[in-house]
């Protein structure tokens, strides 16, 4: 087990300010470094000075790992993002993406050149079960760049696939197109365009303000022969940004596993937004599986807006809460009075299920009630995943 970080020293502002130069050079003692990092989350002028000093240090030598605690940059970022409000407020629904893309970029500062070619296996769930695709760390970032590009296009920004790209395309189609068009195998050079695009997305939605959250973001058209075949897939911008935060975290964890890097789940409030989005998408996914014959038909025909049978989804731990999932015909509302099943899952475990990283049969869930309804909802959760 790694040793916990030392308790911060009780130092006043002038002393902490005088330590910024040593901190930027990684020359502080562990206790001094902890005290400085705590202070940076509370003092805007010192945070700006620390960033300026770190940039100056970066000019003195090539960017490389200094053998620091691998979680150092992540802790500093989380502290600053959580305590220091930006000059232009980021909409609440875009904050998880801002935080997760920053955490992933911090990971890249600690890996070597060779690790960009480390093998990574992307996993998701299709109707026949779990499937996977092998790529590299750089290939994963190419995937994130290409799919985040759907949000960029919706906002009127440039498409990383180029202006001739057919619109809309499914995320998997965009990824394959990017991989084929880019240098193969992708190299660490993909980090620059990805990082620039993440900054531009956050900057654009921040200037647009909270009211832009209802803008539709096309995700392509569901292919023939699959769930919801031929249907146009769209998410409002506020949900699309949470979706991109979710995928950024999931693939960051894939990369961290590949390079043996410690990586924590998102903060509870960000994880809650991700879980809430998945729970709200479950009824539509369940309806699509029914149309494709992959789920049991609805037992009750309930008028639109009327209460019907429901499953209570209880998420425990980080980001937890309760959601009632309607089980009857489309348009029926969930009804606590007509609860026929109950599923309990850990928050991170539920997200791994929704990412297709664990089969629904193996989800560590507490289950009670209608077994058929439980199976259909767990499989629907896994069906939320995609390349």
Q: Strand tally, please? A: 8
In whole angstroms, how far apart are the ends? 34 Å
The structure class reads alpha+beta
Q: What is the number of domains? A: 3
- The largest sheet has its strands arranged as 6-5-7-8
Instruction: Give the CATH topology of the largest domain.
Output: Four Helix Bundle (Hemerythrin (Met), subunit A)
Protein name: MDMPI N domain containing protein
Domain Putative zinc-finger: 18-47
Keywords: Transcription, Transcription regulation
Write up what this structure looks like:
By secondary structure, the protein is an alpha+beta fold. The protein folds into three domains: 1-61, no CATH class; 113-264, Four Helix Bundle (Hemerythrin (Met), subunit A) (Up-down Bundle); 269-383, Nonspecific Lipid-transfer Protein, Chain A. It is 46% helix and 16% strand. It is built from 13 helices and eight strands. The chain has helices spanning 13-18, 20-24, 30-40, 44-60, 72-83, 95-108, 137-154, 171-181, 191-208, 237-258, 268-291, 347-354, 371-383; strands at residues 119-126, 129-136, 216-221, 232-236, 307-316, 321-326, 333-346, 366-369. The strands form three sheets. The protein has a four-stranded mixed beta sheet with strand order 6-5-7-8. A two-stranded antiparallel ribbon has the order 1-2. A two-stranded antiparallel ribbon has the order 3-4. It is globular, with a radius of gyration of 23 Å. The two termini are 34 Å apart. This is MDMPI N domain containing protein. It comes from Streptomyces alfalfae. Keywords: Transcription, Transcription regulation. Residues 18-47 form the Putative zinc-finger domain.
């Amino acid at each position: 087990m790694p040793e916990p970080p030392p308790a911060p020293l009780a130092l006043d502002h002038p002393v902490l300010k005088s330590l910024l130069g040593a901190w930027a050079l990684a020359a502080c003692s562990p206790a001094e470094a902890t005290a400085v990092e705590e202070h940076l989350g509370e003092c805007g002028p010192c945070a700006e000075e620390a960033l300026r000093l770190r940039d100056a240090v970066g000019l003195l030598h090539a960017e490389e790992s200094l053998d620091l605690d691998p979680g150092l940059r992540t802790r500093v970022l989380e502290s600053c993002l959580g305590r220091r409000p930006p000059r232009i407020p980021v909409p609440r629904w875009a904050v998880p993406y801002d935080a997760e893309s920053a955490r992933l970029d911090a990971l890249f500062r600690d890996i070597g050149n060779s690790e960009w070619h480390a093998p990574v296996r992307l996993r998701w769930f299709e109707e026949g079960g779990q499937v996977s695709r092998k790529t590299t760390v750089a290939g994963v970032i190419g995937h994130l760049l290409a799919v985040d590009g759907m949000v960029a296009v919706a906002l009127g920004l440039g498409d990383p696939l180029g202006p001739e790209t057919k619109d809309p395309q499914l995320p998997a189609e965009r990824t394959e197109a990017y991989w084929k068009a880019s240098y193969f195998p992708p190299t660490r050079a993909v980090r620059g365009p990805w990082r620039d695009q993440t900054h531009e997305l956050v900057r654009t939605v921040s200037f647009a303000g909270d009211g832009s959250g209802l803008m539709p973001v096309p995700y392509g058209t569901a292919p023939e022969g699959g769930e919801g075949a031929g249907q146009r897939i769209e998410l409002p911008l506020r949900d699309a940004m949470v979706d991109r935060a979710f995928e950024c975290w999931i693939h960051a964890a894939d990369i961290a596993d590949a390079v043996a890097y410690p990586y924590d789940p998102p903060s509870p409030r960000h994880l809650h937004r991700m879980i809430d989005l998945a729970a709200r998408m479950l009824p539509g996914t369940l309806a699509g599986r029914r149309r494709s014959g992959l789920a049991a038909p609805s037992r009750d025909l309930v008028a639109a807006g009327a209460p019907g049978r429901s499953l209570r989804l209880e998420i425990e731990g980080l980001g937890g809460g309760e959601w009632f999932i309607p089980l009857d015909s489309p348009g029926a509302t969930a009804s606590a009075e007509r609860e026929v099943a109950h599923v309990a899952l850990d928050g991170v475990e539920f997200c791994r299920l929704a990412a297709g990283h664990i089969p629904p049969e193996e989800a560590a869930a507490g289950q009670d009630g209608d077994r058929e309804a439980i199976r259909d909802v767990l499989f629907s959760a896994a069906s939320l995943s995609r390349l």
